[in-house]
TrEMBL record:
Belongs to the purine/pyrimidine phosphoribosyltransferase family. PurR subfamily. Homodimer. The keyword Membrane does not apply. Residues 5-74 form the Bacterial purine repressor N-terminal domain. It comes from Tepidibacillus decaturensis. Keywords: DNA-binding, Transcription, Transcription regulation. This is Transcriptional regulator.
């Protein structure tokens, strides 16, 4: 790259950080890219970091030493997240979304790129202090939410299947008890999909009693993986027995009355 003016260099630096979140980039790389002194690059980074923090975009973490560099940690201000989630809760509270069994129709929200981006940013902000190697979710509706979160944490997504597939090679399959129906079900994960000892974040779209997530935790044990957190988009508030205790939810389904056609969704425990 040719030598840039400082204003152009700051723009390019900003793009580098936004496109590579949670990635440690050395000052030597920037110095060679812009043909500038490390001291000048450091001053530019301080300016960007100040703006990022003022605007609630995140922060730039500088690590000293030979193996050091700069890492962009995305975040979202709590008030901004709360305002966005209140809009989503209002949309979810429509009686037209009510499905048999106390479930909600959420496919339109989980298919909206703009909303997904915000939801992923919220989860990334909630778990930014954890060392996460992989995000895991169960097919199918949790997949876009997991990918949205992974784009901010810059980690891969692993999908747990209800049924094993030939294209995934050998798999680990376990039986688990569904928390809501109390039925024995199965889930599978390809042996090549998850490295032994990985630090894992579980993301799911809806949690009733938590049986599916508990099943995923049991599956992770087969890989000696370390559970670093659980993120749920919407949790049911009418469940008597919760199988999962430590989790973060963005929204909470507090009232469902199929007879009177009443639905109420409020903010989750993240707020």
């Amino acid at each position: 790259m040719k030598k840039l003016r400082r204003s152009a260099r700051i723009v390019d630096l900003t793009q580098q950080f936004l496109h590579q979140p949670n990635t440690l980039i050395s000052l030597s790389y920037f110095a060679e890219r812009y043909h500038s002194a490390k001291s000048s690059i450091s001053e530019d980074i301080d300016i960007i970091d100040e703006i990022f923090q003022e605007e609630g975009i995140g922060q730039l973490l500088t690590l000293a030493g030979a193996a050091g560099g700069v890492k962009f940690i995305p975040s979202i201000p709590k008030e901004e997240a709360k305002t966005e989630m209140l809009r989503i809760c209002q949309a979810l509270s429509s009686v037209e979304r009510l499905l048999p069994g106390g479930y909600l129709y959420m496919s339109d929200i989980l298919g909206n790129p703009k909303l997904l981006k915000q939801l992923g940013r919220m989860f990334a902000s909630a778990f930014s202090n954890q060392e996460i190697d992989t995000i895991i979710t169960v097919e199918t509706k949790g997949i876009p939410l997991a990918h949205a979160t992974a784009s901010y944490l810059n980690v891969p997504v692993v999908i747990v299947r209800r049924d094993s597939r030939v294209t995934e090679g050998s798999v680990v399959t376990i039986n688990y008890v569904s928390g809501s129906t109390k039925r024995i079900q199965t889930m599978s994960l390809a042996r090549r999909a998850l490295k032994e000892g990985s630090n894992v974040l579980v993301i799911d779209d809806f949690m009733k009693a938590g049986g599916t997530i508990k099943g995923m935790i049991g599956l992770l044990q087969e890989f000696n993986a370390h559970l670093k957190g659980i993120g749920v988009f919407v949790e049911s508030g009418e469940t008597e027995e919760r199988l999962i205790k430590d989790y973060i939810s963005l929204a909470r389904l507090t009232e469902v009355n199929e007879r009177e056609k009443l639905v109420n969704v409020e903010l989750g425990n993240f707020f």
